């Protein structure tokens, strides 16, 4: 793992605006070399993602969140990333969350797991 290139995978079903806000939030805060992958699970108009500055995987059937994540992993492998991060498509950020995580995980020589944690959420 020399490049520390990461992919963030978002799964969408007919929630274009929320997903767009999430993509914009990632692009505005993350300084890490990152590829954003949006997996569309049989939405009514998946072409809406063509201007989102991300990779798009369009499923012809709704494969659910886990199936969408698996399809996103396939795209991440195709792109050649070192790390994968799964996010809900309604996640927004105030600062870079990914670079500190990648920095810590990249220092580890064994398999690591990442866990997300909500703080101050009411």
Layout of secondary structure:
Layout: E1 6-12, H1 16-29, E2 34-41, E3 55-59, H2 64-79, E4 83-87, H3 98-106
Parallel strand pairs: 1-2, 1-4, 2-3
- Supply the CATH class: Alpha Beta
Structural class: alpha/beta
> How do the strands of the widest beta sheet line up side by side?
3-2-1-4
Rounded mean pLDDT is 84
For CATH, the homologous superfamily is named as Spore Coat Polysaccharide Biosynthesis Protein SpsA, Chain A
Helix content: 25-40%
* Overall shape: globular
How many distinct domains? 1
The arrangement of helices and strands along the chain is EHEEHEH
Strand content: 15-25%
Q: According to CATH, what is the topology?
A: Spore Coat Polysaccharide Biosynthesis Protein SpsA, Chain A
Rg over C-alpha atoms, rounded to the nearest angstrom: 14 Å
What is the CATH architecture assignment?
Alpha-Beta Complex
Characterize the main sheet: 4 strands, parallel
Helix tally equals: 3
* Low-confidence spans: 114-122
Question: What is the subunit organization of this protein?
Answer: single chain
